[in-house]
Amino acid sequence: MSTSPETPTPEFSITRRFDTPREMVWRAWTEELELAQWLRPFGVSTDSVSFDVRVGGTYRYTMTSEETGEKFPTGGTFLEVEPIHRLVLTWGDPQTPVETAPIITLTFSEHDGGTELVFHLRGIAGQHGDGFVYDGWEEALTNLGHHLAGDLSW
């Protein structure tokens, strides 16, 4: 009887620190009006944002390429909600079953008077410079930083 090694689940993490209280970073991730301001990579707009932040609640937003007009519907289900500490949600095509969807875990920690955010995505490989999922989330988190700082010039 032969056994084959289990294939590791693709995943990656991005850590960011913001000079903003944890409650404000939490709100930026959980309130529709806040999310619509920053939740997108560069060169993309975000439309029709709907977030029902509770365990079992769903969310949906549509990203539109500013260059081609192509639309990218995105959504998922909230699996864990611990206000100002942790969010766990599925992510991707809104039609993907919860059991097979990639999982995002967001951890919010106080750090030197600000907030450390750890973004972890399990189910999709990513690395800096991939021009795809990692870079898209890195750009979105850069947008989040501008939003939290009140920088409207980006």
UniProtKB/TrEMBL annotation:
**Gene3D superfamilies in UniProt:** 3.30.530.20
Under the heading SUPFAM superfamilies, the entry gives: Bet v1-like
Record family assignment: Belongs to the AHA1 family.
CDD domains reported in the protein's UniProt record: SRPBCC_CalC_Aha1-like (cd07814)
Which one Pfam family would you cite for this protein?
AHSA1
Residues folding into a coiled coil are: none
Protein name in UniProt: Uncharacterized protein YndB with AHSA1/START domain
Q: Which InterPro entries match?
A: ASHA1/2-like_C, START-like_dom_sf
Q: Please report the stretch or stretches of sequence annotated as the Activator of Hsp90 ATPase homologue 1/2-like C-terminal domain.
A: 19-148
Organism the protein comes from? Garicola koreensis
